[in-house]
Amino acid sequence: MPSVEDYLLGTDDTESVRLGVQHRLWAVQAAAIWERAVIEPGSRVLDVGCGPGYAAADIAQLIGPGGRLLGVDGSPAYVSQFEARMERLGFSHAEVRRGDVHDIASIAGDETGTFDVAYIRWVLSFSKDPDRLIEQVHKCLKPGGRVAIQDYFGYASIKLAPKNEDFQRGIAAVAEYWTEHGDLDVMGEMPRILRETGFEVREFDVVQRLARPDNQIWNWPDIFWPSFIPRVVEAGYLTRADADAFMAAWRAASESPDSFLLLPPVFEAIGVKR
Ligand SMILES: C[S@@+](CC[C@H](N)C(=O)[O-])C[C@H]1O[C@@H](n2cnc3c(N)ncnc32)[C@H](O)[C@@H]1O
């Protein structure tokens, strides 16, 4: 059974703040998939691996007090932050439960089979058993219910321009380390998993974004490297010298008007429960 404790990115305060910034930087894409999956006033929504509740707060606002938002996450810290956030906002229709998302049907209890939409963003790439996770989510939805997914395929295609070997060595190490804990190509399996689990694949597409140093989205990798690269070093996938060279290459790129970064492609899927 996959463990929640060994979650790759950790759950300290820095990571919680980073998730908030990341949510802002991807808010347009999130709102768009919620609309296409038909999250509307009164909807019953499951937020699978909800983290501290940044997306959940927006969804809770969209569905209103006549709706229901249930978040599930393995991190005690994120569960507390979720609860504090919803209390501050006065969203009594939003609840969080701590547990492993691979058991989400039993965590949802009596509500299993009643949800209109399940949202899963950047959780499947940390899963050791995505087939089981999607199977469990399928149980939680009512017939005709939708699952909306945003996650990676081809993460290692991140590329800095002008080309820089020190930077690319770091990316290769990030991908290698991540692969120990999950699957950065998980969306490559998603059409099959959805179909085999009993979903009709209504949408499957990719969002490929490009960052330049003066774009807002440059901030996304810019806040990720300082928090994640030290973990990659600690785990032995990158030497300290190579990590320093990686960060030096990144800082130099950040100062240059000629740089750009091909970001990891984020794939989007909407499945409808048959
Ligand atoms: C990168 S964060 C994404 C959070 C949120 N979905 C978002 O888009 O902002 C991944 C989240 O999944 C949670 N998570 C990862 N594996 C889990 C598991 N097996 N069971 C429960 N939660 C898990 C982590 O605690 C973390 O909050």
Could you write a compact summary of the structure shown?
The chain has 274 residues and is an alpha/beta fold.
Structure notes:
With 274 residues, the chain is of the alpha/beta class. It has one domain: Vaccinia Virus protein VP39 (Rossmann fold), CATH 3.40.50.150. It is 44% helix and 22% strand. The protein contains 10 helices and 10 strands. It has a 7-stranded mixed sheet, sandwiched between helices. Strand 4, helix 6 and strand 5 form a beta-alpha-beta unit. Helix 1 packs antiparallel against helix 9, helix 7 crosses helix 10 and helix 9 runs antiparallel to helix 10. The protein is globular and about 55 Å long. Bound molecules: S-adenosylmethionine (SAM). The site of S-adenosylmethionine has 23 residues, from helix 1 and helix 3.
> What is the correct CATH architecture?
3-Layer(aba) Sandwich
Question: Can you tell me the residue ranges where pLDDT is under 50 for at least 5 consecutive residues?
Answer: none
Given this structure, which CATH class is correct?
Answer: Alpha Beta
First-to-last CA distance: 27 Å
The CATH homologous superfamily corresponds to Vaccinia Virus protein VP39
What small molecules accompany the polymer chains?
A: S-adenosylmethionine
Structural class estimated from helices and strands: alpha/beta
Number of domains: 1
Strand segment tally? 10
Main sheet record: 7 strands, mixed
